[in-house]
Amino acid sequence: MTQTKSVARPVEPGIPRHVWRIAVVVVAGAFMSTLDTSVVNVGLARMSTGLGASLGTAQWVSSGYLLALAAAMPPVGWLSRRFSARSIWLASLAAFTLASALCAVAGSLGELIGLRVLQGVAGGVLVPAGQIMLARAAGPSRMGRVMSTVGIAVVLAPVIGPVVGGLLIELSWRWLFLINVPFGLAGLLAGRRILPADGERPSAGRLDVAGLVLAAGGLAVLTYGITEASRRGSVAPAPVALALAGGASALVLFVLRSRATEAPLVQLGVWRNPAFTSSAIVAFFGGAALFGGLVLVPLYLEVLRGQGTVATGLVLIGQGAGAAITMPLSGRLTDRFGGGVVSVAGLLLSALATLPLLTVTAHTGLPAIVAITTARGMGVGLAIMPAVAAAYSAIDRAQIPDATPQLNAVQRIGGSIGTAVLVVAVQRGIGRPAHAFQNSFGLLLATTVLALIPAVGLSVVLRRTRRLTHGSTGGG
User: Fold this and answer.
1) What's residue 475's pLDDT?
2) What is the mean pLDDT of residues 433-453?
């Protein structure tokens, strides 16, 4: 059985400059990929009109990207061993940039959807490949401070995406894609100069094709089912139920195959590590609480209060700014005290800040809503990335390529499920909108409280490990 490796270490004097340079490049790539999930949604109506297609068909410009993003994650660990994390990061950024340029000149909606799938595949590889390099460069004692920089991109990109999209759409929907090209080219130049080679790598072995089909297909189909449940407001329609059942079944088969084969696509042994497992569960529920809130609060403002884009954007920016403020602090606290106790503190703050939302009405003052959501964002900023940093610190360096895509998939599924559950709850009670939103905010609070259970478990595991480590080194 894998033993928990992580211990709380004294904070080192500082982080070397080359590690920060790697972090800046990796975060820029993650920001581009994550921003694209929200910025394009603003232009779907313009795309359908400009390319002569229905809005329902244009929805696949967004859905195709999300499905490809999920499907591309499972093979990243194998690819990083076969070609190096640096090589696949550069290749995926080049593909993302090229696909963006081609999307900008697409002549039909079918062509645009196909190019968006290519863009999604590139984006799905880009983020975990960057995290592999960053985790290796940081080392366990710096993991909290360095990984918190990635969290800023994860939180801010969905918040500012609609604002950026709203500005670009005034020029043309093609600018929603064209804007990626200069940033992608700059990222390629910086990446070639700054990103480190992997050095000696373990053999990748043969690609488990059957495992890849099950994992990639399962994640894509499950993501489709969750997205459709959110869009339709129900899990009852046959396409939704079949997608949910089929995706979940494929992932179960993937796990069974991975346990039985000698050369699985990803090693699942990291889940035997109690610190990694607790961290991943916190990331799952934390993702649900974060992205669920990013969807539920705008719905409340637009449906119940009739607020426009400016007011909605102000509240969302407050929530994102709150998280961005506390994330650097969370990194320093994680490296000093461990990710478990910091996650517990962040989740408690987030839960306390969610409580007032259970009593909001159509007449609650907008400044109060901004203050509540900003405080909630601060709590989420303290909660999620410390758990992710603890997961990386708990495993061996050789396990990072296998752990990274699994952590990313867990957090993404958590965010998708959290969003779908809350949207379904609102739509089912839309006849009494005030009551529906209060119930949905109650579900958001319950999700945050659920994340506290594994966070407390993580802090206990890390404390026990620290005691054992001190005892074994002669401290008594």
Assistant:
1) 42
2) 89
Strands (E), 89-227: none
Look at the chain and count its residues: 476
CA 426 to each of CA 42, 172, 352, 421: distance values in angstroms, whole numbers, following the listed order: 22, 33, 22, 9
Q: What is the 3-state secondary structure (H, E, C) of 265-317?
A: CCCHHHHHCHHHHHHHHHHHHHHHHHHHHHHHHHHHHHHHCCCCHHHHHHHHH
The domain segmentation of the chain, as residue ranges, is 15-196, 208-264, 271-476
Question: What CATH number was assigned to the domain covering residues 15-196?
Answer: 1.20.1250.20
CA 257 – CA 268 distance, rounded (Å): 11
pLDDT at position 252, please? 96
The reported pLDDT for the residue numbered 445 is: 93
Architecture in CATH for domain 271-476:
Up-down Bundle (1.20)
Which residues neighbour 458 within 8 Å (Cβ) at sequence distance 6 or greater?
275, 278, 279, 282, 339, 340, 343, 387, 390
Q: In the chain, what is the greatest distance between 2 CA atoms, to the nearest angstrom?
A: 75
Phi then psi for residue 473, to 5 deg, are: -95, 10
Only one residue has tokens 């929530």, namely: 319
Q: 339-354 vs 366-393: helix axis angle to the nearest 10?
A: 160
- Separation in Å, CA 38 to CA 60, 65, 165, 286, 321: 13, 11, 8, 19, 17
Q: What is the pLDDT of residues 356-391, one digit of tens each?
A: 999 888 888 888 888 998 899 889 888 888 888 888
> Could you tell me the pTM of the whole model?
0.84
